[in-house]
Amino acid sequence: LCSLKGRLLLAESGLSFITFICYVASSASAFLTAPLLEFLLALFFLFADAMQLNDKWQGLCWPMMDFLRCVTAALIYFAISITAVAKYSDGASKAAGVFGFFATIVFAIDFYLIFNDVAKFLKQGDSADETTAHKTEEENSDSDSD
């Protein structure tokens, strides 16, 4: 919980739980499944991050799974929040929509940070490949000139 990722996952799970409770109490109860699933997924990723399962299970692509989770959650929260605020008139639906918009922002920040980390990692891999390829070309050109 001390890291930025831990705090983001905690905020995601907290906002998802509050949104779920608001949808349970509202007339827009058809939307309660999405916050419940996102709450459970955020708790799983918080647990995986705390237990460092990404280091233990190397076969899974953790950054891509986390990125896809955040992108889909942001899109789904945005869509159901707009619908809840525009279509339903009770206070619980409006509150669920507002908390859904906050959750959309938190998920968007998370996938932006994940995207930046993955892009930096890929740039480092590309520069290492270019350096290796450049060294190989120099070695081949030196051996041909003899």
From TrEMBL:
Chief subcellular location: membrane
Classification via Pfam families: MARVEL
Annotated organism of origin: Macaca mulatta (Rhesus macaque)
All residue ranges annotated as the MARVEL domain in the record: 1-119
Acetylation recorded as keyword: no
Topological relation to the membrane, as annotated: Multi-pass membrane protein
Protein name, as recorded: CKLF-like MARVEL transmembrane domain-containing protein 3
Key words of the record: Membrane, Transmembrane, Transmembrane helix
PANTHER family documented for this protein: CKLF-LIKE MARVEL TRANSMEMBRANE DOMAIN-CONTAINING PROTEIN 3 (PTHR22776:SF3), MARVEL-CONTAINING POTENTIAL LIPID RAFT-ASSOCIATED PROTEIN (PTHR22776)
Upper classification of the organism: Eukaryota, Metazoa, Chordata, Craniata, Vertebrata
PROSITE patterns: MARVEL (PS51225)
TM ranges: 17-47, 67-89, 95-115
GO cellular component: membrane
